[in-house]
Automatic annotation (TrEMBL):
<keyword id="KW-0479">Metal-binding</keyword>
<comment type="similarity">
    <text>Belongs to the metallophosphoesterase superfamily. YfcE family.</text>
</comment>
<dbReference type="GO" id="GO:0046872">
    <property type="term" value="F:metal ion binding"/>
</dbReference>
<dbReference type="InterPro" id="IPR000979">
    <property type="entry name" value="Phosphodiesterase_MJ0936/Vps29"/>
</dbReference>
<dbReference type="Pfam" id="PF12850">
    <property type="entry name" value="Metallophos_2"/>
</dbReference>
<dbReference type="GO" id="GO:0016787">
    <property type="term" value="F:hydrolase activity"/>
</dbReference>
<dbReference type="InterPro" id="IPR029052">
    <property type="entry name" value="Metallo-depent_PP-like"/>
</dbReference>
<dbReference type="InterPro" id="IPR024654">
    <property type="entry name" value="Calcineurin-like_PHP_lpxH"/>
</dbReference>
<feature type="domain" description="Calcineurin-like phosphoesterase">
    <location>
        <begin position="4"/>
        <end position="151"/>
    </location>
</feature>
<protein>
    <recommendedName>
        <fullName>Phosphoesterase</fullName>
        <ecNumber>3.1.4.-</ecNumber>
    </recommendedName>
</protein>
Length: 163
Protein backbone atom coordinates (compact mmCIF):
# COMPACT_ATOMS: atom_id res chain seq x y z
CA UNK A 1 0.00 0.00 0.00
CA UNK A 2 1.13 3.55 -0.72
CA UNK A 3 0.54 6.31 1.84
CA UNK A 4 0.72 10.06 1.16
CA UNK A 5 1.20 12.49 4.06
CA UNK A 6 0.98 16.27 3.87
CA UNK A 7 3.62 18.12 5.89
CA UNK A 8 3.37 21.76 6.91
CA UNK A 9 5.06 24.01 9.45
CA UNK A 10 5.45 27.58 10.63
CA UNK A 11 2.06 28.85 9.49
CA UNK A 12 1.98 31.64 12.12
CA UNK A 13 -1.77 32.34 11.94
CA UNK A 14 -3.08 35.04 12.60
CA UNK A 15 0.15 36.99 11.93
CA UNK A 16 -0.37 35.69 8.40
CA UNK A 17 -4.11 35.91 7.76
CA UNK A 18 -4.75 32.46 6.30
CA UNK A 19 -3.23 29.39 4.75
CA UNK A 20 -2.53 29.73 1.03
CA UNK A 21 -5.25 28.20 -1.17
CA UNK A 22 -2.61 26.01 -2.83
CA UNK A 23 -2.26 24.00 0.41
CA UNK A 24 -5.73 22.50 -0.13
CA UNK A 25 -4.88 21.47 -3.66
CA UNK A 26 -1.57 19.82 -2.70
CA UNK A 27 -3.09 18.04 0.31
CA UNK A 28 -6.32 16.95 -1.41
CA UNK A 29 -5.32 13.27 -1.61
CA UNK A 30 -3.34 12.83 1.63
CA UNK A 31 -4.46 10.51 4.42
CA UNK A 32 -2.73 12.48 7.19
CA UNK A 33 -1.34 15.97 7.68
CA UNK A 34 1.62 16.61 9.98
CA UNK A 35 2.06 20.14 11.33
CA UNK A 36 5.54 20.66 12.78
CA UNK A 37 4.70 23.62 15.02
CA UNK A 38 4.29 27.38 15.09
CA UNK A 39 0.62 27.15 14.20
CA UNK A 40 0.04 30.02 16.66
CA UNK A 41 -3.74 29.29 16.80
CA UNK A 42 -5.62 25.97 17.04
CA UNK A 43 -7.92 27.12 14.24
CA UNK A 44 -5.15 26.04 11.83
CA UNK A 45 -5.79 22.42 12.85
CA UNK A 46 -9.53 22.87 12.31
CA UNK A 47 -8.91 24.19 8.81
CA UNK A 48 -6.47 21.41 7.89
CA UNK A 49 -8.80 18.75 9.32
CA UNK A 50 -11.29 19.55 6.56
CA UNK A 51 -8.72 17.83 4.30
CA UNK A 52 -7.39 14.97 6.49
CA UNK A 53 -6.68 14.07 10.14
CA UNK A 54 -3.90 16.21 11.65
CA UNK A 55 -1.01 15.32 13.97
CA UNK A 56 0.65 18.46 15.32
CA UNK A 57 3.21 19.62 17.86
CA UNK A 58 3.68 22.98 19.48
CA UNK A 59 6.37 25.36 18.32
CA UNK A 60 8.13 28.18 20.10
CA UNK A 61 5.71 30.93 18.99
CA UNK A 62 2.26 29.80 20.10
CA UNK A 63 -0.80 31.19 21.79
CA UNK A 64 -1.57 29.59 25.15
CA UNK A 65 -4.40 27.49 23.65
CA UNK A 66 -1.83 25.62 21.52
CA UNK A 67 0.64 25.13 24.37
CA UNK A 68 -2.13 23.69 26.56
CA UNK A 69 -3.29 21.19 23.91
CA UNK A 70 -0.28 20.04 21.90
CA UNK A 71 2.88 18.18 22.97
CA UNK A 72 6.40 19.38 22.22
CA UNK A 73 7.17 16.16 20.37
CA UNK A 74 5.33 13.02 19.28
CA UNK A 75 5.57 9.96 17.06
CA UNK A 76 3.11 8.44 14.62
CA UNK A 77 3.24 5.23 12.61
CA UNK A 78 1.96 5.25 9.03
CA UNK A 79 2.14 1.87 7.36
CA UNK A 80 5.59 0.46 8.08
CA UNK A 81 7.05 3.90 8.83
CA UNK A 82 7.60 5.46 12.28
CA UNK A 83 7.69 9.27 12.07
CA UNK A 84 8.98 11.57 14.80
CA UNK A 85 7.62 15.13 14.92
CA UNK A 86 9.18 18.11 16.71
CA UNK A 87 9.42 21.83 16.00
CA UNK A 88 13.07 22.57 16.84
CA UNK A 89 15.63 19.91 15.97
CA UNK A 90 18.97 21.34 17.01
CA UNK A 91 20.90 23.30 14.41
CA UNK A 92 22.87 22.46 11.28
CA UNK A 93 25.83 21.28 13.38
CA UNK A 94 23.97 18.76 15.55
CA UNK A 95 20.68 18.03 13.77
CA UNK A 96 21.53 14.45 12.79
CA UNK A 97 22.65 13.59 16.35
CA UNK A 98 19.60 15.28 17.90
CA UNK A 99 17.24 13.37 15.58
CA UNK A 100 18.76 10.02 16.65
CA UNK A 101 18.69 11.05 20.30
CA UNK A 102 15.08 12.28 20.28
CA UNK A 103 13.65 9.61 17.94
CA UNK A 104 15.99 6.57 17.94
CA UNK A 105 13.44 4.27 16.27
CA UNK A 106 11.97 6.73 13.76
CA UNK A 107 12.57 6.24 10.04
CA UNK A 108 11.61 9.89 9.43
CA UNK A 109 11.92 12.97 11.63
CA UNK A 110 9.77 15.95 10.64
CA UNK A 111 10.76 19.34 12.02
CA UNK A 112 10.24 23.04 11.33
CA UNK A 113 11.43 26.31 12.94
CA UNK A 114 14.03 27.45 10.38
CA UNK A 115 11.56 28.09 7.52
CA UNK A 116 14.21 26.44 5.31
CA UNK A 117 12.98 23.37 3.41
CA UNK A 118 15.18 20.31 3.79
CA UNK A 119 14.83 16.70 2.62
CA UNK A 120 17.99 14.79 3.59
CA UNK A 121 18.79 11.21 4.46
CA UNK A 122 21.32 10.54 7.25
CA UNK A 123 22.33 6.95 7.98
CA UNK A 124 18.89 5.52 7.32
CA UNK A 125 16.91 8.36 8.89
CA UNK A 126 15.16 10.95 6.70
CA UNK A 127 15.17 14.45 8.20
CA UNK A 128 12.39 16.48 6.61
CA UNK A 129 11.52 20.17 7.00
CA UNK A 130 8.73 21.45 4.73
CA UNK A 131 9.74 25.10 5.15
CA UNK A 132 6.95 27.60 5.84
CA UNK A 133 3.62 27.78 4.05
CA UNK A 134 3.22 31.49 4.86
CA UNK A 135 6.57 33.11 5.72
CA UNK A 136 9.29 32.46 3.16
CA UNK A 137 11.89 34.64 4.91
CA UNK A 138 15.00 34.28 2.73
CA UNK A 139 13.61 31.43 0.61
CA UNK A 140 12.52 32.06 -2.98
CA UNK A 141 8.94 31.00 -2.17
CA UNK A 142 6.82 29.50 0.57
CA UNK A 143 6.62 25.71 0.71
CA UNK A 144 4.97 22.60 2.12
CA UNK A 145 5.91 18.96 1.79
CA UNK A 146 4.70 15.48 1.03
CA UNK A 147 5.96 12.21 2.48
CA UNK A 148 5.37 9.06 0.46
CA UNK A 149 5.41 5.72 2.29
CA UNK A 150 5.50 2.58 0.15
CA UNK A 151 4.70 -0.44 2.34
CA UNK A 152 5.31 -2.97 -0.44
CA UNK A 153 8.83 -1.74 -1.18
CA UNK A 154 9.46 -0.64 2.44
CA UNK A 155 10.55 2.79 1.22
CA UNK A 156 9.83 6.35 2.24
CA UNK A 157 10.76 9.61 0.55
CA UNK A 158 9.97 13.28 0.88
CA UNK A 159 9.05 15.94 -1.62
CA UNK A 160 9.26 19.70 -1.16
CA UNK A 161 6.36 21.54 -2.84
CA UNK A 162 7.04 25.18 -3.70
CA UNK A 163 3.92 27.36 -3.48
Amino acid sequence: MMHHIGVISDTHIPQFKQLPEAVSAHFAEVELIIHAGDLSRLSVIDELETLAPVMAVQGNIEYEEVVEKLPIKREVVVGHCRIGIVHILGDTHNRERMARQEFPNARVVVYGHSHIPSNKEYNGQLLFNPGSATDRRKQPRCSVGLLHVDDEEKKVWGEIIWL
